[in-house]
Amino acid sequence: MRYLTAGESHGPRLTAIIEGVPAGLPLTADYINAELKRRQGGYGRGARMKIESDQVEITSGVRHGLTMGGPITLHVTNLDHQKWLDIMNAADVEEKKKGLRKITKPRPGHADLVGGIKYRFSDLRNSLERSSARETTMRVAVGAVAKRLLEEIGVEVASHIVTFGGIDIDVPENLTVSQIKERAGRSEVSIVNPEKEQDIKAYIDQIKKDGDTIGGIIETIVGGVPAGLGSFVHWDRKLDAKIAQGVVSINAFKGVEFGVGFEAGRLKGSQVMDEILWSEADGFTRRTNNLGGFEGGMTNGEPIVVRGVMKPIPTLYKPLMSVDIVSHEPYKATVERSDPTALPAAAVVMESVVATVLAAEVLEKFSSDNLEELQAAVAQHRAYAKGF
């Protein structure tokens, strides 16, 4: 399975094309729209979420609620585009219109300046339009298709926030993936500990008053994963590496860890490695899951546990200093739409990205021209692994 996304932040629409989804997968626009709505929710979101109410249109690859095996095309219309018709016109426009809201003042922490240098733009809008986190709309849409596929083979994905700015969330032990999904889904700040809800909201309110922003750490957990996805034979076939690349590709994400992650550098081997157990009922399992469901770049049958760190949103209402690319004069960076935090939305994006990488890996390993064939192949593999 592979996909491409296209579209700009203020363009007419966003598009994704997905290739390699098996025929016979139940898929509706309503299912995808529910995921898109999750991305637009969360405490601390700003004006753009009130402007846009993302709704997907499926224009190929699905008939009568079932995938057909061909490329699936998804579109999301940008309702805000009507205010940007001249600025974002694909055709040539009058010279006086070309200068409409031309951007020559790059914002620190964004792709504005480096994108202008790389692609030789005199108007940095060409950088910020495509580099905008608006593109993650289609990552979530694609991720919804991936999750729909994973559900059919007994794999469940959930995300929650474990660190909100400088506040760590006390996460109850031994929560199942379903429980994490349910608890985080009820929380406006995507946490599983309701006792921290009001503290986090108050913190976000204060950050907004200060004109500042915060980042945090998001955890995605995947349950029901078959053992043996990925491979140790080449560096680029290791599944944890693929997931790490996918997570860091999300706007503003700066780091990834699995299981105990960087804490492993402070522990002894006897405290980190997961002892192997066997029972007739369950086959091979692990006493712990410190390695986050991976050994040698392959899934080991335990839940995948991956965390991503998101930096604070770089657009500040108390802007930092920058330099105009034309005059080379210093100035205070311009303020575009901004939120004090986008962590709840980012959790949905991360969940979608992990699901997409995992679904692609499943389809690469197992025979999958149609859903029944895939389900049979996965079931046969699970039976083999259990009886190994």
UniProtKB/TrEMBL annotation:
It holds the Pfam family Chorismate_synt. Its cofactor is FMNH2. Its EC number is 4.2.3.5. FMN binds at residues 130-132, 251-252, 296, 311-315, 337. InterPro entries: Chorismate_synth, Chorismate_synth_AroC_sf, Chorismate_synthase_CS. NADP(+) binds at residues 39, 45. Reduced FMN (FMNH(2)). SUPFAM superfamilies: Chorismate synthase, AroC (SSF103263). It catalyses: 5-O-(1-carboxyvinyl)-3-phosphoshikimate = chorismate + phosphate. Pathway: Metabolic intermediate biosynthesis; chorismate biosynthesis; chorismate from D-erythrose 4-phosphate and phosphoenolpyruvate: step 7/7. Signal peptide: none annotated. Keywords: Amino-acid biosynthesis, Aromatic amino acid biosynthesis, FAD, Flavoprotein, FMN, Lyase, NADP. The keyword Amino-acid biosynthesis applies. This reaction introduces a second double bond into the aromatic ring system. NCBIfam families: aroC, PRK05382.1. Belongs to the chorismate synthase family. Homotetramer. This is Chorismate synthase. The gene is aroC.
